[in-house]
């Protein structure tokens, strides 16, 4: 695992609050017991995690260096090590490269869009509303839990070229709307909007929780200081929300680098591969039984997410004045 | 196929996966056609576990109960498996050696799972090839060895809106490609349909629509030694397919599941190609009596359609092999096949079952039955799904005018050749 | 933002603020209701269509209100599915998975956020790293492992692989990071044990985070499809999504009537969990006030 990340881990989350750092007992004995207690807290998780998550992940990493195919399933260890061959092949695999391009667009546009929408909704719902609060919270969460089949039926209906709601609204403004899902230019942007729509409830829930962690008296102090709302948001809410934003950013990035369901139900990767994603290509290779090759694809996804996450950690690190 | 260095994976050290590593290298040599071992006479006994997908899995216990009445010492447990994910489940089960005794397999999966070495060879005296539709039997044969027995079948016909066809003055099903083209044109021009037909414009599964054209034209996918996707016959078939889009007879937009039926019944689309399940789908929308079934036309004299369905296989590591095969062969008895048709509407793979009045007396079914004699499946090679996906991509380019028939054929051939037959 | 203004502000200013507040609030409600229409559409269609016969569900164009409402889809669903078994399996798996994650992830998250120990960075790195590997990649190795542990076709086999997830630890760590160290140090000065600090200070402050983790873990576990399908080799350990896929998605067709009725039944527990837990999205104690 890359170690780079650790340097950028927020070190002092309370920075920016009005608190003075308290005195720390530096005694050595304290540190040793600290180790013990630290591991004591982490151990139950660590054991389960290493066995059931890290183990299979490691095995799959080795798989990506082999030529394992479904024909070898009875004897998975009887395969040949091909080193980085699978990875090299990937970079001349036209489909995969197309998919990588589509995925990049999806992530670069989709992640900020989704985060902004979720944050907006969370702020709206957190701004002292009393009435309908639960209704709103549940409502905006519904796309997350609605059956993807129902979602696809309704969206497809809305996106119908001739009779769909989307084009009727555009027609009202004199715009002749495109055939959204069957047009190579518009299919991917359409799925990005759909992705943001489906996932904003997820971000909203986490932002809502994160907003509660910001001490109320900080706001009170800011109000007394006459801070304008936007200034309050810019200099108080945003910095305090950084650990939460980092989490949402990383998780949303992971989800979007692996985006799959939207093209799977809406376009099957078409038209002409314009919505084929990397995760979809990986899924297909698994279906074809090319386990080694498919795993290599999975690890390319992994590397992409790691790099993006490092970027997020750098961008959202907790120094207020960077 | 040449392979790079033959070192074995040294997984043992890294595994939290505590699998005993009895690495024995890869079996690359082909042992040639094999014969299944004999099955002992007498009644079946002991436990038999069966996996079956979807509706078949849900209802198979009906037949299993009958079987147990006949074989009181046998106990059949059917586990229904969702189609969605079934392939993954089987693959994992083989890797973890957690397979049942008997499993249902999609016809295009047989090549792949046979290559794992997990499937038992069909005992030839016990299940006889001659009983089945030849196209169906071939789906279970891999490198000359039979690993799987066709259980039920389906084939594709043209569904045609009756009113539109009548308005266009068409009185009988077209016999040749030219006739079909003319009929489609007429249904659009005179019959009032927006689209004379709907041919799937590429993407997943489009090969099932187009390969029959290749077969009808005397071409094939593989001639036993090499792929022949760029043969003149194949190119011609692709050109025929392409012409429907170029002439504006079929939409280039992919219709999603559920979109076709209402459009066909309303006459917006005059015809489309599909399998027997569409009878039920159309009838549920009130379409009974509103459509006709046309058999496939001939290109150069052949009238071939696609054959699909599902097979039954026995796993090699079964502890109850004889009973497992007895259960499989029970399912293939003509009277049991008829009962199965009555239970879930699956078409019998056994030819004799079609003589039964239940099937012979049904005019719609008869068209399917006749077509089944002239229906073909793709070669049962483990790489077929991957090759088919490449074909589907090229077909989309052809349909959307992004590629010529000849270029697409060349691309299909090149991809298929580089993927190989997985041998 | 907040509805509190302080008494120290002169009266006319308060009045001005109040009326601006009121307008702002009205605008906000309009916006939120507008957004609500956009987000609930498909859910409403799913709900309404679950009372339509299959033919109407597949009508083109689709209808909103059922022409002829019927409970037949639900009747059908409960007739064909061994509902109690699947529901129990799903509930046991989802509840235990959720409780396990709440416990293990908050403890580990606390350690990673606030306690110094050797290997901490490595552990966090590995946790984050595995989060980024697509799960389908590990399916076969995980199954082989489960098989060797003898857990295939048991509920334990469905639960254990998900009992301690990277997602939860990452979430809890991020939230616990924002708890001021001074609060914990103050307690340590009072010679409180780490366990007590965790239990009496950290966890109560984490209520919103725990609620979030509970909601998300329950949802993921409840809807999980591929692993329960692969790991259950017999019908008796099937969960609801597996059973629903079995009945609703055929080889060549989807049975929308069963599918939509099933989707509604499946979503209810998720919504109940959400409604119950979202109440905890309230501010923790005013942390900076404690010194």
From TrEMBL, chain B:
<keyword id="KW-0813">Transport</keyword>
<dbReference type="GO" id="GO:0055052">
    <property type="term" value="C:ATP-binding cassette (ABC) transporter complex, substrate-binding subunit-containing"/>
</dbReference>
<dbReference type="GO" id="GO:1901982">
    <property type="term" value="F:maltose binding"/>
</dbReference>
<comment type="similarity">
    <text>Belongs to the bacterial solute-binding protein 1 family.</text>
</comment>
<dbReference type="Pfam" id="PF01547">
    <property type="entry name" value="SBP_bac_1"/>
</dbReference>
<keyword id="KW-0762">Sugar transport</keyword>
<dbReference type="GO" id="GO:0015768">
    <property type="term" value="P:maltose transport"/>
</dbReference>
<protein>
    <submittedName>
        <fullName>Multiple sugar transport system substrate-binding protein</fullName>
    </submittedName>
</protein>
<dbReference type="GO" id="GO:0042956">
    <property type="term" value="P:maltodextrin transmembrane transport"/>
</dbReference>
<feature type="signal peptide">
    <location>
        <begin position="1"/>
        <end position="23"/>
    </location>
</feature>
<keyword id="KW-0732">Signal</keyword>
<dbReference type="InterPro" id="IPR006059">
    <property type="entry name" value="SBP"/>
</dbReference>
Automatic annotation (TrEMBL), chain C:
<dbReference type="GO" id="GO:0055085">
    <property type="term" value="P:transmembrane transport"/>
</dbReference>
<keyword id="KW-1133">Transmembrane helix</keyword>
<feature type="transmembrane region" description="Helical">
    <location>
        <begin position="197"/>
        <end position="220"/>
    </location>
</feature>
<feature type="transmembrane region" description="Helical">
    <location>
        <begin position="86"/>
        <end position="110"/>
    </location>
</feature>
<dbReference type="InterPro" id="IPR035906">
    <property type="entry name" value="MetI-like_sf"/>
</dbReference>
<dbReference type="InterPro" id="IPR000515">
    <property type="entry name" value="MetI-like"/>
</dbReference>
<keyword id="KW-0813">Transport</keyword>
<protein>
    <submittedName>
        <fullName>Multiple sugar transport system permease protein</fullName>
    </submittedName>
</protein>
<dbReference type="Pfam" id="PF00528">
    <property type="entry name" value="BPD_transp_1"/>
</dbReference>
<feature type="transmembrane region" description="Helical">
    <location>
        <begin position="26"/>
        <end position="48"/>
    </location>
</feature>
<comment type="similarity">
    <text>Belongs to the binding-protein-dependent transport system permease family.</text>
</comment>
<keyword id="KW-0812">Transmembrane</keyword>
<feature type="transmembrane region" description="Helical">
    <location>
        <begin position="258"/>
        <end position="277"/>
    </location>
</feature>
<keyword id="KW-0472">Membrane</keyword>
<feature type="transmembrane region" description="Helical">
    <location>
        <begin position="122"/>
        <end position="143"/>
    </location>
</feature>
<feature type="domain" description="ABC transmembrane type-1">
    <location>
        <begin position="87"/>
        <end position="277"/>
    </location>
</feature>
<keyword id="KW-1003">Cell membrane</keyword>
<feature type="transmembrane region" description="Helical">
    <location>
        <begin position="155"/>
        <end position="176"/>
    </location>
</feature>
<keyword id="KW-0762">Sugar transport</keyword>
<dbReference type="GO" id="GO:0005886">
    <property type="term" value="C:plasma membrane"/>
</dbReference>
């Amino acid at each position: 695992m890359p170690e780079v990340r650790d340097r950028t881990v927020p070190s002092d989350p309370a920075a920016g609050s009005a608190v003075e750092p308290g005195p720390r007992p530096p005694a050595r004995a304290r540190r040793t017991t600290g180790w013990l207690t630290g591991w004591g807290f982490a151990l139950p998780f660590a054991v389960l995690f290493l066995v059931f998550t890290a183990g299979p992940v490691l095995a799959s990493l080795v798989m990506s260096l082999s030529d394992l195919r479904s024909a070898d399933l009875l004897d998975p260890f009887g395969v040949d090590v091909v080193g980085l061959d699978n990875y090299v092949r990937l970079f001349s695999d036209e489909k995969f490269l197309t998919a990588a391009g589509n995925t990049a667009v999806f992530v670069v546009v989709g992640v900020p869009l989704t985060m902004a929408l979720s944050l907006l909704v969370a702020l709206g719902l957190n701004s002292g509303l009393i009435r309908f609060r639960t209704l709103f919270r549940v409502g905006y969460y519904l796309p997350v839990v609605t059956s993807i089949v129902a979602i696809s039926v309704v969206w497809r209906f809305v996106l119908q070229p001739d009779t769909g709601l989307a084009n009727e609204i555009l027609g009202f403004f004199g715009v002749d709307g495109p055939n959204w899902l069957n047009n190579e230019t518009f299919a991917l942007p359409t799925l990005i909007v759909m992705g943001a729509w489906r996932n904003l409830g997820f971000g909203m829930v986490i932002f809502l929780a994160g907003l509660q962690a910001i001490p109320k008296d900080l706001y009170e102090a800011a109000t007394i200081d006459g801070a304008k709302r936007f200034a309050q948001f810019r200099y108080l809410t945003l910095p305090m929300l950084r650990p939460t934003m980092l989490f949402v950013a990383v998780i949303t990035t992971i989800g979007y680098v692996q985006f799959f369901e939207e093209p799977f139900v809406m376009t099957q990767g078409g038209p002409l591969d314009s919505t084929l994603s990397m995760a979809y290509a990986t899924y297909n290779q698994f279906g074809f039984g090319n386990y080694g090759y498919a795993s290599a694809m999975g690890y390319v996804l992994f590397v992409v997410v790691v790099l993006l996450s490092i970027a997020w950690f750098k961008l959202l690190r907790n120094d207020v004045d960077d | 196929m040449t392979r790079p260095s033959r070192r074995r994976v040294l997984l043992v050290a890294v595994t939290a996966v505590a699998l005993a590593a009895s690495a024995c290298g890869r079996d690359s040599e082909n042992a040639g056609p094999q014969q299944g071992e004999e099955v002992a006479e007498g009644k079946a006994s002991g436990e038999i576990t069966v996996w079956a997908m979807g509706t078949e899995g849900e209802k198979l216990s009906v037949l299993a109960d009958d079987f147990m009445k006949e074989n009181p010492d046998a106990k059949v447990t059917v586990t229904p498996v969702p189609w969605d994910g079934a392939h993954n489940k089987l693959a994992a089960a083989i890797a973890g050696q957690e397979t049942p005794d008997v499993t249902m397999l999609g016809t295009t999966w047989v090549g792949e799972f046979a290559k794992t070495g997990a499937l038992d060879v069909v005992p030839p005296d016990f299940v006889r090839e001659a009983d089945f539709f030849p196209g169906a039997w071939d789906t279970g044969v891999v490198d000359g060895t039979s690993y799987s027995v066709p259980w039920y079948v389906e084939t594709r016909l043209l569904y045609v809106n009756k009113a539109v066809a009548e308005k266009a003055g068409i009185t009988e099903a077209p016999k040749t490609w030219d006739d079909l083209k003319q009929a489609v044109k007429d249904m659009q021009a005179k019959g009032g349909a927006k689209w004379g037909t709907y041919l799937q414009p590429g993407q997943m599964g489009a090969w099932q629509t187009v390969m029959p054209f290749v077969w009808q034209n005397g071409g094939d996918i593989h001639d036993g030694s090499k792929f022949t996707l760029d043969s003149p016959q194949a190119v011609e078939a692709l050109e025929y397919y392409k012409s429907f889009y170029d002439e504006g007879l079929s939409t280039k937009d992919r219709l999603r599941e559920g979109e076709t039926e209402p459009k066909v019944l309303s006459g917006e689309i005059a015809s489309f190609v599909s399998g027997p399940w569409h009878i039920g789908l159309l009838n549920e929308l009130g379409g009974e009596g509103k459509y006709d079934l046309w058999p496939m036309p001939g290109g150069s004299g052949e009238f071939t359609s696609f054959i699909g369905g599902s097979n039954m296989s026995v796993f090699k590591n079964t502890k109850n092999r004889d009973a497992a095969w007895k259960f499989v062969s029970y399912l293939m008895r003509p009277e049991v096949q008829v009962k199965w048709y009555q239970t879930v509407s699956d078409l019998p793979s056994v030819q004799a079952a079609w003589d039964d009045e239940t099937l012979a007396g049904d005019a719609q079914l008869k068209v399917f039955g006749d077509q089944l004699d002239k229906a073909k499946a793709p070669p049962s090679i483990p790489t077929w799904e991957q090759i088919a996906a490449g074909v589907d991509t090229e077909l989309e380019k052809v349909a959307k005018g992004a590629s010529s028939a000849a270029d697409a054929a060349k691309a299909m051939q090149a991809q298929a050749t580089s993927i190989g037959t997985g041998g | 933002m907040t509805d509190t203004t302080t008494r120290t502000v002169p009266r006319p200013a308060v009045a001005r603020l109040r009326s601006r507040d009121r307008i702002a609030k009205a605008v906000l409600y309009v916006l939120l209701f507008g957004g609500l229409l956009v987000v609930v559409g498909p859910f409403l269609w799913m709900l309404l269509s679950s009372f339509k016969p299959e033919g109407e569900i597949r009508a083109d164009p689709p209808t909103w209100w059922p022409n002829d409402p019927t409970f037949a889809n639900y009747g059908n669903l409960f007739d064909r599915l061994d509902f109690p078994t699947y529901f129990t399996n799903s509930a046991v798996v989802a509840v235990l998975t959720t409780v396990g994650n709440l416990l293990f992830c908050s403890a580990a998250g606390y350690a990673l956020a606030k306690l110094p120990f050797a290997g901490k960075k490595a552990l966090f790195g590995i946790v984050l790293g595995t989060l980024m590997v697509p799960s389908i990649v590990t399916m076969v190795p995980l199954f082989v492992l489960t098989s060797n542990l003898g857990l295939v076709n048991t509920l334990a086999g469905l639960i254990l692989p998900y009992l301690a997830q990277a997602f939860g630890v990452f979430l809890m760590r991020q939230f616990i990071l924002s708890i001021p160290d001074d609060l914990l140090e103050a307690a340590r000065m009072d010679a409180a044990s780490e366990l007590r600090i965790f239990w009496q200070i950290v966890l109560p402050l984490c209520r919103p985070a725990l609620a979030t983790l509970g909601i998300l873990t329950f949802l993921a576990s409840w809807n999980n499809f591929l692993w329960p399908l692969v790991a259950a080799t017999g019908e008796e350990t099937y969960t609801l999504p597996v059973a629903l896929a079995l009945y609703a998605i055929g080889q060549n067709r989807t049975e929308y009537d069963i599918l939509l009725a099933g989707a509604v039944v499946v979503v209810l527990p998720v919504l109940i969990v959400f409604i119950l837990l979202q109440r905890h999205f309230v501010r923790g104690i005013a942390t900076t006030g404690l010194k």
